[in-house]
Amino acid sequence: MKAIKNHTGLVYPLNRTNIDTDQIIPKQFLKRIERTGFGQFLFYHWRFDDEGNKRQDFSLNKERYQHASILVAGENFGCGSSREHAPWALLDYGFRVIIAPSFADIFYNNALKNGIILIKIEEEQVKQWLEEADIGNLSLSIDLEDQKIFEGNKEYHFQIPAYHKEKLLNGWDDIALTLLHEEKIEIYENSNN
Amino acid sequence: MMGRSKTIIEKIWEKHVVYQEQEKPDLLYIDLHLIHEVTSPQAFEGLRINKRKVRRPDLTFATMDHNVPTRNRDVIKDEISRKQMETLKENCQENNIPLADMFHPDQGIVHVIGPELGLTQPGKTIVCGDSHTSTHGAFGALAFGIGTSEVEHVLATQTIWQERPKTLNVHVEGDLGAGVTAKDLILAIIAKFGVRFGTGYVMEYTGEAIRNLSMEGRMTVCNMSIEAGARAGLISPDETTVEFLRGRVHVRKDEAFTTIAQDWLALATDDGAVYDKTVTIRGDEVEPQVTWGTNPGMCVPVSGTTPNLNDVEYKQDVERALHYMGLNENQPISSIHIDHVFIGSCTNSRLSDLRRAAEIVKGKHVHANVRAIVVPGSFSIKRQAEQEGLDKIFQDAGFEWREAGCSMCLAMNDDIVPPEGRCASTSNRNFEGRQGNGARTHLVSPEMAAAAAIEGHFVDVRNYAGVAL
Ligand code: SF4
């Protein structure tokens, strides 16, 4: 996983609640055995019609969001299936930061493991950014170290558990970290067999 | 001296902590790791790249379920599906992991065969790269879904980092009425409290209605905990649990069984234990349920109607859902005509589900506009159902009788509802496109699905002609 310390980018607003992982990446694309190449299938049925043509009425297809790298969405983002293909698709498409009032548990862990910064912010603020990014171009800067979001000269603080932050900042490999405790795992196994 | 009263959740947790540090997640030991073809290939690939081994193949068990054909096992039309299944087979061989492949007599949906084989037991920590792993909580196990990076982590270390969850007591007062099932109960719970009330919690289901459920019913309830946002939901073990497990392949025998059964019963939540939150619902007020929208919380009693747009909180989302579903506001549920019926999935494909559905369709015929399929949850269920002649009853009534697998629950194989097709389904997710691009899913109990198959629209099974419930 790549380390990430800060990120500045254009916001894409997706004003829906309970966006589930079946929408983020539909099941017909889960058959690959690689971790890469899922970006082309992101939000597939929202982006493309049955003939595979781009749907003009879906906002992500608009020219002005083509280089967006920060996704802002409604409550309970990432609910449903445990498929890690969802964060793989978001990352591969180009999203590095997701901001929402709440996230589903499994998605949260999966995204974190892939170096996506997930930021929980009160619904009121999220609504405001959804609106601003809908009307005009909205650019935000995230400073993970200081837990701050900058919008022009306004700044906002966000919460993130310290150990999540540490992992993102360092891009640590979880398994290598756990194996530092291998002796304790052995002791546990020996005393429970 | 007696210790403090504890919930089953705390008891299991404390027993499995390998390592703990202030303000960090705990490192938990995993007793059973179930794997399937869709979420495991990248995990094995990761191990290979980093030259790591599977630490405990003996605590790992694999099956093929998501992709398998249910009509003719020998015909896998999709090359990439075939590759995925072959990859699982190679990975299991290379790492000595037991596998119930497509032709194995133990094959079935991962959450159906775990309990069936007695791999699932009270007090165990169980994970699988699948969100409906919560099903195993019915046995008083702490069971939850994980992503592929976590699958790789468990393969390599047999542990997982987890934040200590908050505990939520979902208390059901009173018993369910005749013709009202575990499926209706869990749908009513999600409809009442919403699709995210469980986020950050492990739920324990308690109360009279829960105690009176069979193990099959308890699995149906725990299965859908994830649809309420909870990664895990469980039920304290009791005599029903013990009796279900007695004599199963992976369960200890004779005296050893008596001893372990006592340990299981001792896991039950102590009197006076405190939960972080409690919600209560009346079981005797629950009616048969039907979802009208695109998440499981968009659900009403069969006697109800679709919502009135002036009464709802997230109006835009409700409008979108109604539009997707091809429905209007204030539309009576009984007026909704269906053209597909799917009886199956890890929620409702067990023998008792099939028996009750068969009772309803016996001697009747599927409506002319409806295509109906029954997909048993496992090979073993299929064999038992055939011994009882259930396959004949279904086929005589015009249902297709299939091989075991996930099938139309997520339509990764050929079992797909066409665009704008409308399906009464016993599965657990009515998300857009879940059963096929543009497909419209209504979640119901097996009884409700069976009656809808015959009538071509939703009817209340409680007043359904000629059936004693
Ligand atoms: S039956 Fe459906 S919900 Fe259950 S494991 Fe299979 S795909 Fe998932």
UniProtKB/TrEMBL annotation, chain A:
A GO MF term: 3-isopropylmalate dehydratase activity
Keyword Membrane in annotation: no
GO biological process, one term: L-leucine biosynthetic process
Assigned EC number: 4.2.1.33
Gene Ontology CC: 3-isopropylmalate dehydratase complex
Alphabetic keyword roster: Amino-acid biosynthesis, Branched-chain amino acid biosynthesis, Leucine biosynthesis, Lyase
Catalyzed reactions per annotation: (2R,3S)-3-isopropylmalate = (2S)-2-isopropylmalate
Pathway(s) served: Amino-acid biosynthesis; L-leucine biosynthesis; L-leucine from 3-methyl-2-oxobutanoate: step 2/4
InterPro entries per the UniProt record, alphabetical: 3-IsopropMal_deHydase_ssu, Aconitase/3IPM_dehydase_swvl, AconitaseA/IPMdHydase_ssu_swvl, IPMI_Swivel, LeuD
Entry annotated with the keyword Amino-acid biosynthesis: yes
Domain named Aconitase A/isopropylmalate dehydratase small subunit swivel: residues: 1-123
Record field: transmembrane: none
The protein's enzyme class: lyase
Subunit note: Heterodimer of LeuC and LeuD.
Homology family: Belongs to the LeuD family. LeuD type 1 subfamily.
NCBIfam families: leuD (TIGR00171), PRK01641.1 (NF002458)
Known role: Catalyzes the isomerization between 2-isopropylmalate and 3-isopropylmalate, via the formation of 2-isopropylmaleate.
Protein name: 3-isopropylmalate dehydratase small subunit
Origin species: Virgibacillus salarius
